[in-house]
Amino acid sequence: MKKMLHIGITLGAAVVAVVLWLLAGSPFIKMQTGPEALNPEVNFADAKGAYISYEAAYPVASWVEEYYSGDEDRVLTKGYVIYDADREEFVCVLIPNPERSDKDFDGRLRGMELSAQIRAGKDMTPITVMGSLELASQEQADQVQKVLEESNIVKQFLDFQDSESSMESYFEGDEYGQVLENMCSNILNGKRQSEWYILEQGSINHLRTGDIKLCMVTALLNVLIFLFCLIGLFRGKKEYAAEVPAGAGDTWNRFFAEQSVYAEKWCTYNLNRGYRLSILSLVIPVVIFIALAIFTKNVDTMLTFSVPIGLLIGEVIALIMWWSQKSQSKPDKLLKRLEKSLRKELSSDSVRDEFIEEYVNTQQEWAFGEKTKDGMLWGKVGERYCSVFLWTGRVTVVDMTQLKKVETETRSETVQSGSVKVHSVHYETQFYYQEDPHRRKCDKTFYFNIEDSIGYFITLLRKRVGDRVSITHK
Length: 474
What we know:
This protein is an alpha+beta fold. Helices cover about 50% and strands about 25% of the residues. Helix 8 runs parallel beside helix 10 and helix 9 runs antiparallel to helix 10. The longest helix has about 45 residues.
């Protein structure tokens, strides 16, 4: 099952990388090479699909292309009809987020409606727009044609035709006015444009530059995931062996072999849990962003924004969680921590050898253990030593020849986690030695999370110590 999951992740990463490259690869290459200035001798049709920079000199009409979802007072994208004097054609420019844009098309448009004398004091420098030219749909073309015919400039031309002074002031006094007069004459003479082209600022082949970068970053991350997963498939499972101290005999080998069984059992469980958590961490952000796209009615950007951003966030979180779980799921490292803790717990070599000798010779009927979603413990109740090993690598050993009394206690606590109260219960076994009968603090403590686990442990302990040690419950 684990290998099939590994293969599935490998293939999934490859598919995501390929799909995102097909969506945004060509625009990304164009963006890297940079826009080319559109020369006056090149027709709009010949520059279709190319990433260009265009000097918009004569904005003559505007319209709202799109409002923010659910808010018709806020403009998301605004369109401007630009007259190209060299080609004597129109082109449409779309400006996303016009309120935050530094391209003041509205100011240039107002300047076109002024008299030549007033216009001379205004900044009428052409505005550079960078994007790719795309053919407008028929619906867009009809809308733009209507907006152009209803523009204030055309209305002024009609109103001023009978006034020679007004015509001279508005349409014949400077170069801008002469261009606008020629444009209006063509419109009134019935000249219509057969094809309309749209140039959206910061957009290449219908993809905005931000979305292109997002798609490429997500694709690159999936390429890396694919390569690492592919290497992992060929390398296969890494075999490990418990490190036994130099000069140790067969007893040490048997002891570490027994611990390695528990260590591998916990690490396998922990790693599988890591896989599950990683998958959830990947899926949840993707689902959230897709749901947001549907709710805000931005379904057209789902594949180029919602899915990539969800995948990117989800995969980063999943990788962090998986690496975290994997670093804690290595049996050889767990065995090293157990050995180090055991040496600290029993600093005397002779005592440690005695404990290990008893442990390996104690039958499994004296073994106890517990595994929950958060941890695992195991140990044995020997004739002299009672021990517990934790998934964290900690070892606690009790010398039962020194025991005076044993107390068990049920502890319950409630922790506030945000707006949720988390209630937990754990069970303690406290060991008191004979050295100081008035000592209040216990010498050793075992912790259990399951009531049946501590019950079974106390049953084994009673069998070993009989009546010579007092076992009570607080």
